[in-house]
């Protein structure tokens, strides 16, 4: 599983002492080839962490040999010193592995505005390299956790004989285009960087970009896809893209399932929209409505809050043609009272809200969570 | 105080039985003239309550004789029956007062998607009319409360000899352009409808439109300004507009001070922005960041969350030129670590966050609240 499910990759995860509590905090993923193609997608936040600025440049070259990831510190808003620290991290990895620093991507997650303890991080790189293994994927996934309660991994195989695997972390500041969400995907398919990039952007647009736990866009989001070519398989684009999408969707669902303080996972289906953009805009507006998220927490099928959220968008619709279902019960018909809200059963963790805009044939699914007192406690007590 | 501070107005507030708990729920404000000029500003939510649709039309005529307001039900998303109910309410007021229904504005607040109990509301109108008094302003302000813990009134006088008074309600779904926020302002100045409209839009743009408690735009927001001319004073525009702005700012500050579950009032000052629009966009983005709102609740001067919010905007700025102060301590300088965060004292209810964009000379102030477990409890347990 994880990043070592595909052939041609080794990984490790260790405790370098970056986290004061002694938990694992440093991961290394190495592409052993023969190919070292790569693509990446990064946060659209204009305040970008040093490792994001670095890795964007690395990925532009189309080749990545290793990815080093740390939890316990985001290295964001740390000024010129922060960028020097990222550079030194890449240099140390390059030195230990015998490659160029320009092929080493760096990712960090944790508190913003605090310098990394380089006296712990740099020695940790040697220790992690010594642990590299074709079975190290789980340990790498564990080492990138921050407030995650579980580590997240996924794998898909293509019929033509290749594998796509991956790991992810992210529990808060989770609204990708965005979240302090780190993802590394690996594949042993033999694929050019340009194709990797297209497949990755197609996949993230419809998976990570459609989860929105708390509306807060991170400074550190990074999704990398590395290809080793070790399977010897050159898949058709559609087959490859579908495998990448499946792994991304699986990881995205796991991120929502472990969001900070959440007790409900909310699947928002927007149907009969005029365009896919309209569907996404409406879905995201619903996903960011704190009042609705509180209502779902209280198992209250409060469809009025859904309509008030739809009403703030510029999507094509007529207010008196809107239908809304909660867990399959059409509690709102034609913009007004529909079926009896007492029929809605909201006891289970997954809640499905369907908004029918009656304006066309496009649709989209956005995932979010409820808003809970636990989210408030976690984010008022814990600096992250 | 309240809507009867200005000469030429009577008001009343009674318990009509719309609220099941027996609290006051019906208010009437009557302009006794000699002039009956009016202007109004309404929610920009495209899903508009029936009374908003009605009152928008009434105000277009430039004359309003009476305003009837109920709490205990928003009459939003109630279909054609909801509009008939609003119409019947205006007709009953007209009948009781001996005016035309086309001069009666209607406003409602409470739960969305539930029809109003017209068997309670219509008889209540006669009862309220019987209580109309030049001292009824406080009772009217009390009758429009929903989750408000206190009623809100304000008054300002112009040196040339006129008065502007007002009342407001609103505690949740509070992000005007927007909130389930009802405001009635009255003045005894002798002013034309067109001037009232200009002064009211100027004032709301810089007051109610710049408070954002929970990012949730209501279906029912209504701000009305009625002029009786009873003072006989025809003020200069600037003097009049300043009095209207002062009353709006006072009421807006009271709304933030009583927001659902809040323990902190947060004043966000955006300075050195390239344009006022940029300053407002940045302020609103900070105001809607749930993670920052949680941090303020925990008295944690988490400036990284301020920067991550600024980074999501399209305003002009360079990330490495951003300065942020919390309660006067510049914890972020040049986009990185500034003064010691331990110096920040956040024990008091009011917290001031200053964001310096270093991009120009424009500025704006946006008000919001912290996000608390009490907000979650109130909005998961209470259908509103």
TrEMBL record, chains A, B:
It holds the Pfam family ArgJ. Keywords: Acyltransferase, Amino-acid biosynthesis, Arginine biosynthesis, Autocatalytic cleavage, Cytoplasm, Multifunctional enzyme, Transferase. Its EC number is 2.3.1.35, 2.3.1.1. Substrate binds at residues 146, 169, 180, 260, 379, 384. InterPro entries: Arg_biosynth_ArgJ, ArgJ-like_dom_sf, ArgJ_beta_C. Pathway: Amino-acid biosynthesis; L-arginine biosynthesis; N(2)-acetyl-L-ornithine from L-glutamate: step 1/4; Amino-acid biosynthesis; L-arginine biosynthesis; L-ornithine and N-acetyl-L-glutamate from L-glutamate and N(2)-acetyl-L-ornithine (cyclic): step 1/1. GO terms for cellular component: cytoplasm. SUPFAM superfamilies: DmpA/ArgJ-like. The keyword Isomerase does not apply. The record marks 109-110 as: Involved in the stabilization of negative charge on the oxyanion by the formation of the oxyanion hole. The active site is at 180 (nucleophile). The keyword Nucleotide-binding does not apply. It catalyses: L-glutamate + acetyl-CoA = N-acetyl-L-glutamate + CoA + H(+); N(2)-acetyl-L-ornithine + L-glutamate = N-acetyl-L-glutamate + L-ornithine. GO terms for molecular function: L-glutamate N-acetyltransferase activity; L-glutamate N-acetyltransferase activity, acting on acetyl-L-ornithine as donor. It is found in: Cytoplasm. Catalyzes two activities which are involved in the cyclic version of arginine biosynthesis: the synthesis of N-acetylglutamate from glutamate and acetyl-CoA as the acetyl donor, and of ornithine by transacetylation between N(2)-acetylornithine and glutamate. NCBIfam families: ArgJ (TIGR00120), PRK05388.1 (NF003802). This is Arginine biosynthesis bifunctional protein ArgJ. The gene is argJ.
């Amino acid at each position: 599983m994880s990043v070592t499910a595909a052939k041609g990759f080794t990984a490790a995860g260790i405790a370098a002492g970056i986290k004061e509590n002694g938990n694992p905090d440093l991961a290394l993923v190495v592409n052993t080839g023969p190919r070292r193609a790569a693509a990446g997608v990064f946060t659209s936040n204009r305040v970008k962490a040093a490792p994001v600025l670095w890795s964007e440049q690395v990925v532009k070259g189309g080749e990545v040999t290793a990815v080093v990831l740390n939890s316990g510190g985001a290295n964001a808003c740390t000024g010129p010193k922060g960028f020097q620290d990222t550079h030194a991290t890449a240099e140390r990895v390059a030195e230990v592995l015998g490659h160029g620093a320009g092929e080493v991507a760096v990712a960090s997650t944790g508190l913003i505005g605090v310098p990394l303890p380089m006296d712990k991080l740099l020695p940790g790189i040697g220790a992690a390299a010594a642990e590299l293994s074709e079975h190290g994927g789980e340990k790498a996934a564990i080492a990138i956790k921050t407030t995650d309660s579980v580590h997240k991994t996924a794998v898909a195989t293509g019929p033509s004989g290749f594998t796509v695997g991956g790991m992810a972390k992210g529990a808060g500041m989770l609204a990708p285009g965005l979240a302090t969400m780190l993802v590394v995907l690996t594949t042993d398919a033999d694929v050019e960087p340009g194709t990797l990039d297209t497949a990755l952007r197609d996949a993230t647009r419809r998976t990570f970009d459609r989860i929105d736990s708390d509306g807060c866009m991170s400074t550190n989001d990074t999704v990398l896809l590395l290809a080793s070519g070790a399977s010897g398989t050159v898949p058709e684009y559609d087959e490859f893209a579908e495998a990448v999408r499946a792994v991304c969707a699986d990881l995205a669902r796991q991120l929502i399932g472990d969001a900070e303080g959440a007790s409900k996972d909310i699947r928002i289906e927007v149907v009969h929209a005029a365009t896919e953009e309209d569907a996404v805009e409406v879905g995201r507006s619903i996903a960011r409505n704190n009042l609705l998220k509180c209502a779902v927490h209280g198992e209250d099928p409060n469809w009025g809050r859904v309509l008030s959220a739809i009403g703030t968008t510029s999507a094509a619709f007529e207010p008196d043609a809107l239908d809304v279902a909660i867990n399959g019960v059409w509690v709102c018909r034609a913009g007004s009272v529909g079926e009896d809200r007492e029929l809605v059963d909201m006891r289970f963790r997954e809640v499905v809200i369907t908004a029918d805009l009656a304006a066309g044939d496009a649709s989209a699914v956005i995932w979010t969570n409820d808003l809970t007192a636990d989210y408030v406690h976690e984010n008022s007590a814990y600096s992250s």
